[in-house]
Amino acid sequence: MISKELENDVAIVLLATKYQDDSAIIKLAGKEGIFSLIAKGVYKPKSSLKALLITGNLLEIDYKKSDSGPSFAHSCRVILDASSAYQDYQSSCFLLFLQELTNALFEYGERLPYEELLLIIRSLCEKKDVLSLALLLVGTFYRRLGINMSIDECVKCQRSDNIVSYSLQEGGLLCKDCLGQEKVKNHLEIHVFRYAFMEVNEKNVNRIVPPAEGFKVLNELVLYLMDYFDLKKLQSFAMFVNALSVK
Ligand SMILES: [Zn+2]
Question: The domain containing residue 14 runs over which residues?
């Protein structure tokens, strides 16, 4: 193993997995893609690497890279502290869901929608609407994974009038004439569906979807995603759904 100078990167903590006695393998999302670091002794009481254990934290990390074998975290500085989000039950469940979903959908080396993810986590810490943020999160993952949805016009005839439904299988909105076997949906559901696929920006993270329809659409989007990629049941999603309905 050839040691090199310290490398430096800014990244979001996705997942910490315990490794040996008091160390952990940390999965991180940087601008260039997902990578991992070993945080040696991170579970020792006085470790200066503790911030690497919190999913959602944005950190500047110095680490030692080796040509063969793992890289080791050397030190880290917190840029965005996500720990405040864990004081709220819904937000904690959101972060668990985020952790499990990213882990299921994205491999090492792949790129997450980094800027979008960061804005969503920041908004979560600012106590913006959790359900709305979850919809934007899932929508941005759809885009990143190449599942495109037509939200401005009918996916079949490209007309934008008389939109009465949508279908995930068909890939977007449906007008009255192209409805086929699909059921008519109410305008709030259609509104929420459109919202989920909007750009993740400062304006959209401040919007609040109607809870009943938001809940319904989120459920549909996540189930379709699990089905599409043949994922096993996401336990954290059931928890998250529960937390949302407790409100
Ligand atoms: Zn049509």
Answer: 3-80
